[in-house]
């Protein structure tokens, strides 16, 4: 709606993980999950649920759909269970989640999305489908300082909304000096895969209800998961600057 694209349907996804209970972070995402600063949308969700919606689109448009998963992987895991052949019809699958060879952001080992539904993450990552996993190690390569963020301007409606969210976060988090771009990096890599240099890995997600819950680790075997090693920060920031018409946007 903020982008002027109310023609794009929105489907409701799962309200609970495959096992356990979702972990919410209202202090970061706001009470509704999409920030404190967004107005109530005028448009509503369609009647079709997310799993059936994805199945319908993937089957009707084989090889054309790029899926970008920015939250827990419950919907994709359910899609694999209920419609096993559908996800293989995607052109590309980009997932933001996991913490491979780096520390987590919920526990010392686990990233928020995978911690919220590790069973779903394991189902999706073990599917042998070609997935690009944008983990915390990649996301920590792109960030912006408080000083630079508060100086940014945009004449584009979506750019202004983005800056309202970003600058509002810095004003609320008065001691924080740096913001890392998680979901935006995953979207950028979906648009321009060359932003990241990747290696192929096989990954395991911890399912024991202890300190390994939701942790992501390499198995050492051959795999189909593309894991970014190096991110071209300048190219990433240039893409965001152009899309959102940001003035003075650069790493630093």
List keywords for this structure.
252 residues; alpha/beta; Inosine-uridine Nucleoside N-ribohydrolase, Chain A; two-stranded antiparallel ribbon
Please describe what this structure looks like.
The chain has 252 residues and is α/β, with parallel strands linked by helices. It has one domain (26-247): Alpha-Beta Complex (Inosine-uridine Nucleoside N-ribohydrolase, Chain A), CATH 3.90.245.10. The protein contains ten helices and eleven strands. It has helices at 26-29, 50-60, 74-82, 112-116, 118-125, 136-139, 146-151, 157-172, 183-191, 233-244, and strands at 66-69, 92-96, 131-134, 143-145, 153-154, 178-180, 196-201, 203-205, 216-218, 225-231, 246-247. Strands 1-2-3-10-7 form a five-stranded mixed sheet. Helix 3 links the parallel strand 1 (66-69) and strand 2 (92-96). Helix 3 (74-82) crosses helix 5. The longest helix is centred in the middle third of the chain and has 16 residues, at 157-172. The chain starts with 25 loop residues before the first helix and ends in a 5-residue tail after the last strand. The model has no long low-confidence stretch (mean pLDDT 92).
Q: What order do the helices and strands come in, and which of them pair?
A:
Layout: H1 26-29, H2 50-60, E1 66-69, H3 74-82, E2 92-96, H4 112-116, H5 118-125, E3 131-134, H6 136-139, E4 143-145, H7 146-151, E5 153-154, H8 157-172, E6 178-180, H9 183-191, E7 196-201, E8 203-205, E9 216-218, E10 225-231, H10 233-244, E11 246-247
Parallel strand pairs: 1-2, 2-3, 3-10
Antiparallel strand pairs: 4-6, 5-11, 7-10, 8-9
Helix pairs in contact: 2-3, 3-5
């Amino acid at each position: 709606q903020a982008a002027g694209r109310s023609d794009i349907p929105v489907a409701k996804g799962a309200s609970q993980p495959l096992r356990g209970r979702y972990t919410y972070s209202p202090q970061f995402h706001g009470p509704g999950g999409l920030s404190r600063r967004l107005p109530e949308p005028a448009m509503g969700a369609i009647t079709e649920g997310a799993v059936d919606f994805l199945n319908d689109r993937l089957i009707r448009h084989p090889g054309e759909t790029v899926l970008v998963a920015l939250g827990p992987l419950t919907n994709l895991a359910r899609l694999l269970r209920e419609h096993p052949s559908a996800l293989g019809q995607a052109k590309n699958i980009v997932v933001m989640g996991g913490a491979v060879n780096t520390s987590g952001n919920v526990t010392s080992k686990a990233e928020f999305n995978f911690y919220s539904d590790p069973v779903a993450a394991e189902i999706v990552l073990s599917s042998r489908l070609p997935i690009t996993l944008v983990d915390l190690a990649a996301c920590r390569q792109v960030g912006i300082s408080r000083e630079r963020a508060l100086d940014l301007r945009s004449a584009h409606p979506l750019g202004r909304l983005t800056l309202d969210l970003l600058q509002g976060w810095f004003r609320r988090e008065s001691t924080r000096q740096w913001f890392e771009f998680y979901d935006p990096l995953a979207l950028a890599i979906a648009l321009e895969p060359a932003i990241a240099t990747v290696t192929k890995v096989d990954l395991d997600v911890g399912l024991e209800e202890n300190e390994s819950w939701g942790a992501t680790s390499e198995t050492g075997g051959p795999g189909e998961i593309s894991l970014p090693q190096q991110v071209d920060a300048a190219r990433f920031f240039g893409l965001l600057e152009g899309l959102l018409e940001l003035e003075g946007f650069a790493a630093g």
